[in-house]
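Protein in question reproduced for absentees:

***
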Amino acid sequence: MKNSSAYEHDDFTLKEKLTYGIVGLVVLSGTFLLGRTVVRGARSTTEQKKTYEDGNAASFAQQLKMAFENDNYFEWGTDEEAVREVIRKVPSKDYFKQVINSYQKLYARSLMADLKDELATSEYNELLAIIAGKPDKITGNYTPIVTSQQYLAWAKRLKAAFDITYWFVPGTDEPAIKAVFMEIPTQADFQKVASAYLREYGNELMNDLKSELEFWEIGSMMDIINNKPKV
């Protein structure tokens, strides 16, 4: 028959095992987290060096983050026009994926999630339309061709500009409309955008433009189109 001291010794040994096991798990977890932090830091530093070269994926990712933060004395909140300009400069869908990956490396955050968080629904939809209108990839012999997909993308961007709200008050994003008008290459292409708009939304584009813009704005907007080549 075991005496009480033997039981105490066995209990103490079991406690030691449990203690060492818990300590081991804590050490392993801490090592894993530390290692992951170090790796992320190294990836971020490596990617940060690429931001000095204008026009690459890392530079675009950094510009988007800066537009989200928009730290200055005169503005508060996201600089939506800056976001739009960056997205417009991205040459293709494939390149945009590189921007997403670079953003993840730089900030350990999802670019698409941050876009959703920083932008109104209509603004987010506009950016999706900008990306949708881009070619899948750009090759050395690439020649820009305006496709039906691009006409629809322009139509969707215009609709998003019409649907914007400011603090729950309906409004119109005039800079977004102007950005689309500046991109449309010819008057004939504008008519195709209008046709795409009619098919997608069942409304005449010109009627919606007149409804959304003040009478002094519609003239200057249409001058952008009327000063373009006919075909």
User: Anything to note?
Assistant: The two ends are 105 Å apart (CA to CA). The mean pLDDT is 84. Residues 4-50 form the longest helix (47 residues).
